[in-house]
Design brief:
Elements: H1 56-81, H2 85-98, H3 105-118, H4 122-139, H5 145-164, H6 168-178, H7 185-202, H8 205-218, H9 225-238, H10 242-259
């Protein structure tokens, strides 16, 4: 699994945006009115070439639906890139409603959930993130690593949304379960850090201290170490464990010195 699939948005792959403009309309007959009576020509018997082959109408309908779906998805992603969260939601919802069996459904649900979260609709975001997990399960094991990464990202987003909603104990449990996922060291260290923060905010300060210590011992070279050690120092001081806090302060200074920080 690639590094940092959790902290960063999942890659949004999809159809290329269609060009703007009106669709091409069929041309109308340009026959001009002639004076006098127009003699009707005898009707010829229809040939086999005049009758459309069976299935052509259905094929055209499917093609038009595909164009409309691509347009909705492109529009939603354009609004999302422009950070117009409220305007991005309706075309996302329309795409998902009209394409219940889309192979990229889990990814689109993840994008929609993140869009709801950015718009401040956290409960709606939470619902979409859980739908990502349902979609990933329904796709089965043959869906490949991309589907697994989308599912991992959804779990991360669910835990983060619980944090934003103030449900810190639930977030801590979810982050705890995520430590067992096959993640890279940087992602795993971030999960430890977030679980420690969630435990602390939930009132389990002793559990948070244990989680910080476990992180620092297991991932001493990861990017989040300085942040984790600083939080750990503050927590130890609040717990009255000042001798341990002093040791961590010295380790923090030493780490900054090695990294060239001022």
């Amino acid at each position: 699994v690639s590094q940092k699939i959790l902290a960063l948005p999942a890659q949004e792959k999809g159809p290329r945006e269609i060009s703007e403009g009106s669709p091409v309309q069929p041309s109308e007959s340009a026959s001009s009115a002639l004076p006098g009576k127009i003699e009707e020509s005898p009707k010829a018997a229809p040939s086999s070439t005049d009758v459309p082959p069976p299935g052509d109408a259905a094929s055209d309908t499917d093609k038009n639906k595909g164009i409309t779906a691509s347009g909705n998805l492109a529009l939603a992603r354009r609004f999302r890139r422009d950070r117009e969260w409220g305007r991005a939601i309706p075309p996302y919802e329309t795409y998902l409603r009209d394409n219940p069996d889309a192979p990229d459904r889990a990814l689109i649900l993840l994008e929609l959930g993140r869009t709801y979260a950015q718009a401040g609709a956290l409960e709606s975001a939470l619902t979409r993130f859980y739908l990502v997990l349902d979609s990933a399960v329904n796709q089965g094991e043959g869906s490949g690593s991309d589907s697994r990464e989308v599912a991992y990202s959804a779990q991360y987003e669910i835990a983060q949304t619980y944090m934003s909603l103030g449900r810190h104990a639930q977030a801590a449990r979810l982050f705890g379960g995520m430590r067992q996922l096959p993640l890279g060291d940087e992602d795993r260290a971030r999960i430890y850090l977030l679980r420690a923060k969630a435990l602390n905010l939930s009132g389990d300060r002793s559990g948070a201290a244990d989680e910080y210590r476990s992180l620092l011992q297991t991932f001493p070279a990861c990017e989040v170490v300085s942040e984790a050690r600083f939080d750990f120092v503050v927590l130890l001081a609040e717990l009255g464990r000042r001798d341990e806090a002093l040791v961590e302060v010295l380790a923090l200074f030493e780490g900054d010195k090695r990294s060239g920080a001022t």
